Amino acid sequence: MGLLGRPANSTNSRCRSVPGTDETIMARMLLFLVVLSTCICCLPAARDNKGTEFILTFLENQQRDQHNPKLFIACSHQSGATVTITTPYNGVSTTVQVTHGQVKQVEVNRTAVELRGSVKSDKAVHITSDVEIVVYGVFAERRSTDAFLALPTDVLGTEYFTPCTSIKGVHPAEFGVVGVHDGTTVTIIPSQAVTFDGQNYAAGQTFFVGLNRFQTLQVQATEDLTGSKITATRPVAVLSGNLLTACGMLGSADHVVEMIPPVDTWGKEFVTVPLTRHTIGDFFRVVAARDNTQVDVTNENTKTLNAGEFWEIDVPSDEYRHVTSSEPVLLVQYSKNGQADNTETDPFMMVIPPVAQFEAEYTFATVDLIYDQADTTHYVNLIIRSSNKAGLLLDGQRLPSDTVWHDVPGTDYVAAQLDISAGTHTARHLSPNVNIGLFSYGFTYLESYGYPGGLRLSRIAASCSTTTPVPADRVDNDCDGRVDEELLNGIDDDGDGLIDEDLAIGNCAGNRDQYRTCLQNRCRNLVP
Predict the structure, then answer these.
(1) pTM (2 decimals)?
(2) Helices 22-39 & 515-526, crossing angle to 10 degrees?
(3) Domains in the chain: how many in total?
(4) Could you list the residue range(s) of the whole structural domain that residue 130 is in?
(5) What 3-state DSSP class applies to 265?
């Protein structure tokens, strides 16, 4: 097995210093170097939504009161962060201090960052920080608000498919692309006929756009652009949504947007949770990236999708569902408008990460809405394995004893909906290899927002080769479609017959607060 992992019935001698053969000593020396790299904090940056550089933009929103978009920035480091925001369009640069446990709101000039029309432009936002931060893009316009979780540049990719919505013939569906590197060629295959930079392109007709760093483009169409394919010669950022959509029945409408994960981070297993307050259900869309993708959903017949095709499912508000697929897919949830069920809600779209990309801990923030901040309500949806729910902490405290958990049919997962206060929050489990699904959203009259609280962005859909396990490297070391699922404890935690083959940032006993001590002891004991 080399260093990838040992069979579960092998002898655990990691914490003993005993003489052995040259081969044994060499193996222990190599393992010592692996563990030592953790002890001295030399791990590579994790592939997740936290980062030190972000390059993004804002899709076009309704032109009502001309509110400026905002960046919401949160930092989990006790010392805080020094963050610089630059808008290349007008050359304005601002440096701010972000305090641990608080959300720093930074307003950016709308003219400098909002994409307008179906054209190429220079409307990027560049964000850098001295430590890892969490960034949200918030476009709160009167009666037209949504927000998105930003993805850092180190997890961006070169292949995307877009999820959008549309009200036919009224407000355009849209997607945007941001250049991260000079000399990038972007290839676009729209799912509907579009006009870009004055040139008409039929549905399925390929066209090319050159982007340098900080250059942007937006493509719009009155038809639904879901399933449009975007590829690039170098990594780019992609956002997708709709300028204004009713998403349910004609009536109140809202801007919807998300920053889209690249295809190589998509997954094959998902759990759906209904949104609080709605009574008539939520829309979900499954988007395929590969031909002949078989999709199974609880209480639905199997559907086969080809690349770029999507399946829209209307899931009742009292149902929790399990989604699986034969090839990686993207799952997106849509909130319906308030007229659909006479509630004070409005549309938003929210990427649903696959369970393989759930995080072990989150730092996330709520959004201030425009229309009625005093009446804005905020929520989280949580997903966890039933056996682990007792160890879940929100803002450092166990969940209330009266928390209602709902079983997800056909799985060992359970889900809960919780009210939360405005501001910054954290969530984690007592055991560092227990992962959680978390989704943050909020409503007021005629406005809403929603996004995943965070996610891993490991390349679980890319070709895989087994690699040496390094704790919390966000790499699928054993190529089983899961990431960091083992503790360094000599036990087969995930039941696959291997031991310590894909390590979480955990300790021997599963108590994260003692992890450093455990690793230091292991380092000492592994010295030949």
Answers:
(1) 0.83
(2) 150
(3) 1
(4) 51-452
(5) helix
